[in-house]
DNA sequence: GTGGTCTAGACCACA
DNA sequence: GTGGTCTAGACCACG
């Protein structure tokens, strides 16, 4: 009914979308967003509103804004947000568990339907993401291609709603992704295999294990930090 | 001061919530909502705003407002919304498929985690829902207890996010539920069994089959209508 | 040259002007400012800009904003600003001394020129202020008529620049005025006498003593607080 | 980031400051300002902005900009500004009176507090200014050391606010100073004497007379011009 | 051509 | 008719 008006205010909503781009590594530290005018148009929003969104991210320490030509909104090294996130997680891990429970649901379903419905083109895209992750160097690239694979699976599921949710969840995940597991590439490869074999149960099963591994990894990280 | 002021779509939001109450059978045809003043207070909203929400539902044919003593907002027989829904589904079933893909994801996860984490109290509640569905008479009761069971499972999963999503999906489902399958009670019972046995894979598997059956049923309904 | 553009941003400048109205008691605690639209027009500024000014005052604890008819920006009991002011003064009284040095200059000159140039109407106004102060009840009235007298003297000086400065200084004074000396009325009366007698030296002399008394009073207040 | 961004009148502000330097004789006719880059840095402003300020002064006839080596912004003989000023004063002397009323206030207070608070170093500086005025040759030197003395007194008052105001007023005075009275040196000397004697009333009294003499001188000048 | 500020005006939610 | 939010567009200061 009101599918795209979930009730947040515009600035907060746009801030969330931009934050997602940072969390997923789409715009890495040091990277620059488009100009305010372009962004405003992209979000179908006035520049004033967009600027409020940028201000939120600025105060959260995600971006810093520079003026002049070659100015713009640049992603910081993310030190401040990382610290804030760790503190919050250390004091209460429940929200993260909640997020992962939901992630398990949407990504298992995505993997299942992907195994049933994937086209050859879907397979090409998923394979490419997997290979790029394998050869990625640097945290930013790892982060980006890890996120990209999960999106590709959701795309292959043919469900726009699942795709949106996969993206939304990913957008909330943030820095955990900074600490990718060494065997992520293998996980992705295994999942992809099951999808190619058109084995929905196996695909979703492996997706679940993959996500639960990540959850465990995160839990450890928070405990030791 | 303006901490929760979303700016501009409160009426639509409230309308959606009230619509959900109708879709899930919480307030059945012929049933009456609380007085405007109570509703307004419940949603932390002014009476004027609430009246706009009611107006939306009125125009959609969900409710009719009667004045005087014993007046109030009464749920109609839902003929108009049903017709509108059928027409829409007949012309494009994709949104419904999208919704069901997502439903499969969240409810499978809910069943899985419920099987892992359910407490004795959770079991009591789920069992009660199942039994009430078995002995329910009339469409309204069926609809209500069917919805209630799915909520109970989501509650047992211990994930507030999954619970919210289960409810949200249900709120969008509407009348399909009018046409419950005869073997729904058996499905619920089977799912509950797997949850009680602490068998996550089986519980989620049965939940999926249950939902896919409903999807098929609906698809047929639309074709023949 | 650029007499009215001293370089502040508009919101800060407007906030300062509104703050002055509070400090001088023109709008007392509990009082209400005009509607945003009127204020915006009065300051020849857009509503958005004016709202930023209101936000500043809101965060400083000077006003609270209520919605609905009979809503608007209302002056608080000023507890928060008072506390903040006391703390600041206790840690560094120098800015207050600086302000008073300047005040001595402008108000002595105002008294001097008033004694030279006052018209009969000026005298009427100054006398009225003095009398009202004598019969005033309540802090708000005292504050208001005290401020009013000093303005009247500055008006009588015939120098718009001095008048502006007297007002500006008064606007920065704030709560000190909350603690009026018992013999303020006598001081005002003495100053007025010298002005009526067209005695510039005596008028400015008395004005100085009046202000220095206030300074001393304030100094004590801060020490004991 | 935008801590000191006043938004929109930087050029005018900078122009005013540079104009003051000319009015006070700090940079005399024929004199050269620093390079654009140095000035820009000094005012913490971009070169483009500074150039706008220079353009303003250029159009007012205060400076002329020469290019090439030994180029820069040179103060003109000030014929054009002087003519403009005379015309303006002849048509309306009120603004000048207003300025002098204010000047009386701030400089009397400065003299008063200087007499109360001057240190030995202050005396040295004030004496030096007085002596240099006595031995000055040429309008430029006269203008410069006259202005300098008044600043020294304001410095000795220990009030930064009074000092700022004395400077600001002086910046607006401009060419009147071109026509210094012969007995200015004696006036300064008398004022200094009262300050050294720690006689606040006398110091401020003499300061007033000094300023009022200047006002009269100016008035005559305008009448005859 | 960038971000920073302000304007003018609309519509919404409120009581 | 109030305050709360957003839009569209302008101009300024920047490097």
TrEMBL record, chains A, B, C, D:
Pfam families: FCD, GntR. GO terms for molecular function: DNA binding; DNA-binding transcription factor activity. Residues 8-78 form the HTH gntR-type domain. It comes from the Bacteria. This is FadR family transcriptional regulator. Keywords: DNA-binding, Transcription, Transcription regulation. PROSITE patterns: HTH_GNTR.
